[in-house]
Design goal:
mainly alpha
């Protein structure tokens, strides 16, 4: 029979386990708001769509529109898809968050967010 190690040990519960989300008394609680701000900045990147519009609608005519540039109606579906998936992800991840805890959901979300930017970079 194995004896569980102390609370800080990685063998008792994994680093991302729900059981490890309770902070010890000496924990620096300023990390929590900083992490929350970082997460909300990532979520808010989808709302920066208006920054991308001029670049997307003036692909060939950099200063003014050219004949073969995309129209706004041709590119606005990207924002629609992004907002729909943001809502769906929030709905499903919220339930999953209650089951497994915030650490696992945060790591998976960060990987998906970074992966999305990498896939987008491949398209440029």
């Amino acid at each position: 029979m194995t004896v569980p190690k102390a609370r800080g040990s990685l063998t008792m519960a994994g680093l991302l386990a729900k059981e490890r989300i309770i902070a010890p008394p000496d924990y620096n609680r300023w990390r929590v708001p900083l992490a929350s701000i970082a997460i909300h900045l990532c979520i808010g990147s989808v709302y920066a769509w208006s920054i991308y519009n001029p670049s997307l609608t003036r692909v060939h005519g950099v200063v003014t529109s050219a004949a073969d540039d995309w129209s706004l109606s041709a590119v606005v579906w990207v924002f629609t898809v992004a907002i729909v998936f943001l809502g769906l992800a929030a709905a499903f991840a919220g339930k999953w968050l209650e089951e497994v805890g915030p650490r696992k959901v945060g790591v998976v979300s960060a990987c998906c967010w970074g992966g999305g930017y990498l896939v987008g970079a491949l398209g440029i």
